Predict the 3D structure of the following.
Amino acid sequence: MLFDELRREPVGSSALATELAGWRTFGKRTVYSTTAASGVAGRVVADTFTNEFWSSAQRQGHGLHEVSYRACFKPELPGFFIARLTKPGDVVYDPFMGRGTTLLEAALRGRVPFGNDVSPLSAMLLRPRLSPPRQADVESRLASLDLQVCDDVRDDLLAFYHRDTLREIGALRRYLLTRERSGEIDAVDDWIRMVAVNRLTGHSPGFLSVYTMPPNQAVSVVSQLRINEKRNQTPPRRDLCAVVARKSKQLIAAVSDADRASLAAVAARAVLSTAPAGATPALPDASVDLVVTSPPFLDVVQYKDDNWLRCWFCGIDADAVQITMARTVDAWAVTMRGAFDELRRVVKTGGHVAFEVGEVRRGSVRLEEVVLPVAVAAGFSPELVMIHAQKFTKTANCWGIDNNDKGTNTQRVVVLRRA
């Protein structure tokens, strides 16, 4: 791609750049600029387009996405690139898949999902939604379980749960771990585990816990005791089977026959890997048409701390999961270089990468300026930088964060092509 910094307009742009330049969907004109950065590969310059490219409204995506996970992006983001840069049957990959938003959106659109994450929790959150069971099968399995006896209840978790609820949680945990160790766990068990994990803590009667932080994270026992004291609350009795059945009904009701057909057509070809993003031997060479991903942003989100309770329930040693938590930009760049070297191996020639980052540390660090030279050094060509700017939605506001004040205020996507 050619650039003309004096004219301040794109020259020789791709079809995507041309579309972004003329974008008017939400009534605003696109602002054009360039992003420049230097690294071992020299100076890199990319066309940059700023606008609102998808809606700020809540729950615009498919209802099957409604599974909580910290710092996940909206399905509209991967959907934007999947629709423009792939066709049905193509492979879409996310090396930092989290709850699996990119892969589920790809599968719903008839693309083959390849996913990876260093945490085994990610596959547990995504795999059941690629092959959702029928509600009758879920309710039948729940009715068959004996959740009245559990002799290894963790008393410290009484900060979150009524004793009878905690007994049921412990009994279900033991059942699932036993089935997994014996190789007998099936798709219905897998689904029940996924739903139970997402009902462990939250701030409404639809969750198993007393009122606590939003459901995408679990505070410590000490912090929960403080919340209980401040709110003068005690954990209420919740019926585990009823809570799981109700959430299952909500998720499954969103799945049409057409959705099931789309998912069934690609689920058997899905690849879900648990490994560092820089070493994914489960993925074949030159097998991926499009990557849409968002890596951990420096030390912004404490994934291990947020998911300690979920990991306990699933029998995962949270301390053994080496999630990237780089403290410096240089350390983050080294990790991303390893990831891009591996992406160069798995992405087809001519394939694309949409790498979503953000401005962090109150806007003092723009990670796209780090990504561009790292990606070029690994063998990718910059297509453009897309900056999606809009007002915060309720999740950020609940933390008391105003627009353009703290945290990630924009979504910044570096679009690359495999040279």
